[in-house]
Amino acid sequence: MNKPLILVVEDDTSIRNLITTTLKTNDYRHVVAMNGKMALMEATSHRPDIVLLDLGLPDMDGIEVIKNIRSWSNMPIIVISARSEDNDKIEALDAGADDYLTKPFSVEELLARIRVTQRRISLMTAEMMVANSEFVNGKLRIDYSAGCAFLDDKELHLTPIEYKLLCLLSKNVGKVLTYTFIMENIWGRNWDTDIASLRVFMATLRKKLEPTKDSPQYIQTHIGVGYRMIRVE
């Protein structure tokens, strides 16, 4: 397992030295930031795998750092803070932190939290690789990398819009997608189409996915709301 790059955001010199020494001893790569502004710069430029974040920073609250990072990245954030009240933990976790470690902490616990996060990263990466390459639902198979869809091992001849609709539904399988959500994702925020046109595209797609009355239902219509792809056994 490759060692991740860790961004350490801590203004207290003694604690920062303790963390960086621990990381260095255990062969973790790391970069350092002493305040919120520097943390955001380092996060943007280095794109670390894990962020160790103190909340009590001299120029801004760590909660704001979390919210800023969450606006553009899902990089794991482990808060390390002297704030031990439940409300503080809940606020940080609600803002987007992945874990919360209270000061004072042991070196062993810090390393354990990092290992757990690292395992989570590896698992998510593996799942994303599978998800990004192929989707299988019953007799339906979508090869995202090749841009092709198959039903019962026979390639479906889809229009570009039909294929985009199919991919959007498959990547949100089980979820009801509203008309607005679908149209924004297929045609963009400045979409110039209407629900009636969407229904036409969806009807032609369904005819190809469900060619006979005995075919399993892949797409479910939620009248007045939108559509959902059903998981087919």
UniProtKB/TrEMBL annotation:
It holds the Pfam family Response_reg. GO terms for cellular component: cytosol; protein-DNA complex. GO terms for biological process: positive regulation of DNA-templated transcription. GO terms for molecular function: cis-regulatory region sequence-specific DNA binding; identical protein binding; phosphorelay response regulator activity. CDD domains: REC_OmpR_KdpE-like, trans_reg_C. Coiled coil: none annotated. This is Stage 0 sporulation protein A homolog.
